[in-house]
Write a structure and sequence with these properties.
Largest sheet: 8 strands, mixed
Radius of gyration: 17 Å
Helix content: 25-40%
Order of helices and strands: HEEEHEHHEHEHHHHEHEH
Shape: globular
Number of strands: 8
Strand order of the largest sheet: 1-2-4-3-5-6-7-8
Strand content: 15-25%
Structural class: alpha/beta
Distance between the termini: 34 Å
Number of helices: 11
């Protein structure tokens, strides 16, 4: 996909996004907010909730807008969504550790949302695309962080499932491959050999087993994130005893899984519905 084609796709997805029910801050920085959407005509609730995390190789030039159409599709399927923004590479306070602290705070803010909106805290899942896929699995790994880690919290929001779409799920391998002009190095502010503990804390691959249901969907024509990252992750997760599923999306590139107009999206939607009991 050329840069022009990608820009046109992202613009279309942004235009197709329904208005959120609410846009709410979870912190004081301009990037610390989320968009809540509730299911269309699904009754009084409580509703299962999908914490939606956009990609863009953790860079500030990409934001949550393109995931709005995906959230609209999930709402039509009976799921509430919390589409979160966070500080990224290029933002003040972005990258390590701010990016991670933000997605953690946005997830934990769901408890506050549930006091005002009919959300089922027993059916909260994460769904992330690309770099957001990394963060979706990292949120599931938070309970395994050592207490001395700078991002450790005593009571992180429990998750039922984590779904990664074309996820950058192994930071050491992403750094070794130099993906996207070594965006991983910019995110982490260090090379793996310079600060191995930082990579242990930040990479879900290193945190396995997570003890949470995990599903990784990845197109075998993806030119942005190699499908081998997801396949290798799932194999390691299964070897550790995790309930992890790897799904190859035949012929799909990087964006088909988040475009509600595609057959690949329908596969993602089926997983989200099934894993939340719908």
């Amino acid at each position: 996909m050329t840069d022009e084609e990608m820009a046109a796709l992202l613009a279309r997805l942004e235009r197709e996004a329904p208005e959120p029910a609410a846009t709410l801050p979870y912190g004081d920085a301009p990037q610390q907010f989320g968009q809540l959407r509730l299911p269309d005509g699904a009754g009084p609730g409580p509703y299962p909730l999908v914490i939606v995390i956009h990609g863009g190789y953790w860079r500030a030039r990409y934001d949550l807008a393109y995931f709005g159409a995906t959230c609209g599709a999930l709402a039509r399927a009976g799921l509430a969504t919390w589409n979160i923004e966070y500080r990224r590479i290029g933002d003040p306070g972005g990258a390590w550790p701010g990016t991670f602290a933000d997605v953690a705070a946005a997830a934990d803010y769901v408890r506050d949302l549930a006091r005002a909106y009919p959300l089922d805290l027993a059916r909260v899942i994460t769904l992330g695309h690309s770099a957001g896929g990394h963060l979706a699995l990292w949120l599931a790994a938070r309970p395994r962080l050592p207490e001395h880690a700078p991002l450790w919290r005593a009571d992180p929001l429990p998750l039922a499932v984590a779904i990664a779409l074309a996820g950058v799920v192994d930071l050491r391998e992403a750094w070794a491959l130099g993906l996207s002009d070594n965006a991983t190095g910019r995110l982490m502010r260090a090379a793996p050999l310079d600060d191995p503990e930082r990579y242990d804390i930040a990479s879900p691959y290193e945190a396995l087993p997570l003890g949470v249901r995990q599903v990784l969907l990845h197109g075998d024509a993806d030119e942005s994130v190699p499908i081998a990252l997801s396949a290798r992750y799932a194999e390691r997760a299964q070897a550790f005893g995790d309930d992890a599923t790897f799904v190859t999306l035949a012929g799909a590139g990087h964006f088909e899984p988040v475009d509600p107009a595609t057959g690949e999206w329908r596969a993602v939607e089926r997983w989200a519905r099934t894993l939340t009991g719908l």
